[in-house]
Amino acid sequence: MFGYSMAEIGNIVVMQGFSGLSMFTVLLLMALGLAIIFGQMGVINMAHGEFMTIGAYTTVMISKVAASYGFTDYYFIFAIIIAFGLAFAVGYLVEFAIIRHLYKRPLDTLLATWGLSLVMQQIFRSTFGAKEVSAELPEWMLGSVNPTPDIDIPINGLFVMGLAALVTFGVYMFMYKSRWGLRVRATVQNRTMAGAVGINTAKVDRVTFALGCGIAGIAGAAFTTIASTGPTTGTLYIVDSFMVVVFGGAASIVGTIASAFGIAQAQSVLQFFMTSSMGKVSTLLAIVTILMMKPEGLFASKLRK
Amino acid sequence: MFEIENLQVSYGQSQVIHGLNFKANKNETLAIMGRNGMGKTTLFKSLMGILPSKASKATVDGVDLQGAATHDRVMKGLAYVPQGRWIFPNMTVQENIETGLEKSATGEIPEDIFALFPVLHEMRKRKGGNLSGGQQQQLAIARALVTNPKVLLLDEPTEGIQPSIIKDIAKVLNEIRKMREITIIVSEQVLSFTMEVADRIIVIDKGRFIHEDTRDNVDAAKVKSYLSV
Question: Which one of B71, B78, B93, B94 would you mutate to disrupt binding with A, by most A Cβ within 10 Å of its Cβ?
Fold first, then answer.
């Protein structure tokens, strides 16, 4: 088939499957933040990719400092925490300065955050230069695992997968097992009523938006392990991330996971057998077809009206 | 005591509530009655700070409510059961009630809530959106009660509820008043229900209070005449 033997096809499926898993983890980390901001709050944040870039540049800078002091093996965990904290802080300020004035005007939010993304890209360009930069990866993250002689699984990919699983678990615990999560869900489902049971919805909005941005920051930190970072890195993932959230069912974390997995795997496998752009187009066509039949996404909840 | 003086509400240039005054005592149930569109829901929403309003005085036990955001009014002792109930449909019954625990030190649902509404205990793992109208009304009242209010506002609690459940709601409201000694203000169009729960009845018409009776001396024919279309 396609000029390959069955054994080669098997290896291709495993390798492309793993490549799809790597794409899935970055998409998932990006989409989780967006699932909170867009899915839960309804804010179309076109600057979400730039929050990922904040996390990526933070990690790159910390890696340079760590390398100069000989701490390259240990910095990454701290870099993830600082990337989250910095993206969270910027998100908090952006919500306070811009987003809170636009909650009832989704199209204005789209324009404002698109403008913000351009401003942030220019700030990155002026600060770090137009060239892409890479993080100094810890020794333990380099190399690969070979379950068979023909299959090569990179350790950094495995690390990002573990990180994505941890963040997903953290988001689930936050949303469904914490008091803050309860406040967020109440505000999302009925803002007026949430206020009428004593929830400070303005504060919930600020923390929720900042949390989504913080998770994008973690995605950025993870991104540095598989690619280099430039001022427009965030724009590579923004369309795919929105696609993941909409396809999964905007308010569903399970839907986001399933959707990120499906889209990443489909793109990875199709891009091998077709060209890269045809793989993307085929995936997009499939998503549009499914959304025409199920506009609320894959995992919308069924409730008494 | 809950005191309101000269309350005024406008939608843009149109004034819809015209200088309302009332006092409601602790352990008293006051009913505001009127036809659809007379200003009952607007009055309740303005009391909760959901709609902007002006007043010379708005206090709960002497604590000023003016200018306070909705969540601050809850902290100061108001609780709200809106028309249509507005339960959180994707949350379980237990989570719906827990949303009202912002003031609670323990974060636990008080035991008396499930004693008042045993059906909610049975259904605590079900999603709120899957309950019947009567069960949702009980849930909305329970969620308001866990905020530990001094004043409970209920906007048309019998709307869309079957008659047998309406009797249960009346019974529960009387029990709540006995247990908590709070002020209850209920808006209604059903006089029979009002007669079971209210100490005083005020009729609202086009944003103005036009008639007031105590339950013992109510002129039922007159009140009904204001309610008929």
Answer: B71
Q: Write the CATH number for B172.
A: 3.40.50.300
**Closest-CA residue of chain A to B84:** A193
Residues in B closer than 8 angstroms to A303, CB to CB, are 89-90, 127, 129-130
| DSSP code per residue over chain B | -EEEEEEEEEETTEEEEEEEEEEE-TT-EEEEE--TTSSHHHHHHHHTTSS--B-SEEEETTEE-TT--HHHHHHTTEEEE-TT----TTSBHHHHHHTT-TT-SS-PPPHHHHHH-HHHHHTTTSBGGGS-HHHHHHHHHHHHHTT--SEEEEE-TTTT--HHHHHHHHHHHHHHHHHH--EEEEEES-HHHHHHH-SEEEEEETTEEEEEEEGGG--HHHHHHHH--
**Confidence check: pLDDT of A305 > 60:** no
The residue range of the domain holding B47 is 2-227
ipTM exceeds 0.90, yes or no: yes
Q: What does the pLDDT read at residue B116?
A: 93
User: Domain span at residue A151?
Assistant: 19-232
Does the pLDDT of residue A304 top 60, yes or no?
no
Please tell me the total count of domains within chain B: 1
Closest-CA residue of A relative to B78 is A196
Confidence class for position B184, pLDDT limits 50, 70, 90: very high
pLDDT in tens, A181-209: 999 999 988 999 999 999 999 999 999 99
